[in-house]
Amino acid sequence: MTALEFTYALDQVSPTLRPFALKLTKDHEDANDLVQETMLKAFTNREKFSEGTNLKAWLYTIMKNTFITNYQRLVRRNTFIDTTDNYHFLNSSSDHVTYNNAYTDFAMEDIYAAIDKLQEVYREPFMLHYKGFKYHEIAERLKVPIGTVKNRIHIARKELKSLLKVYAPAEA
């Protein structure tokens, strides 16, 4: 098979590679890269293809092996070896970052302190709503109209927002 014939055959089969690449990578850009790399490897190794065999299966095998090799390379790149007496493999991927809860603990203390500063008339419906009660359930429990419940929760939120403004996101 000449290079021109092989290129034509690759061109005919290439549209079927993208869905398989997308299934492997689960990302459009990575899938495009994988298809391109597969096509390049297939063309550069065209002499290894046996004419009369299934070109599509050969390309799928190249794609699958390329994907596995790239994945293993990525994993190896994020692994360090500790050379102390006991060897330890440390995965350095940023997906596995552990944070302590100090900031969260301080924030929760401030939130509860701010809630305690609310007048009882606002704090009680707010806390019931926070615990998952619906407006009509709070109204029944407190024996006040539903509009009053909504108003008190709104005022409580507004008050808490001003008390906790140090936690507000910075504006651009």
Which terms would index this structure?
mainly alpha; elongated; Arc Repressor Mutant, subunit A; 2 strands; two-stranded antiparallel sheet; 172 residues; Rna Polymerase Sigma Factor, Chain: A
Question: Can you walk me through this structure?
Answer:
The structure is a single chain. The chain has 172 residues and is mainly alpha-helical. It folds into two domains: 3-91, Orthogonal Bundle (Rna Polymerase Sigma Factor, Chain: A), CATH 1.10.1740.10; 102-167, Arc Repressor Mutant, subunit A (Orthogonal Bundle). Helices cover 66% and strands 5% of the residues. It contains eight helices and two strands. Strands 1-2 form a two-stranded antiparallel ribbon. A hairpin with a 5-residue loop joins strand 1 (79-82) and strand 2. Helix 2 packs parallel to helix 4 (55-77), helix 3 packs across helix 4 and helix 7 packs across helix 8. The chain is elongated. It starts with a helix and ends in a 9-residue tail after the last helix. The model has no long low-confidence stretch (mean pLDDT 85).
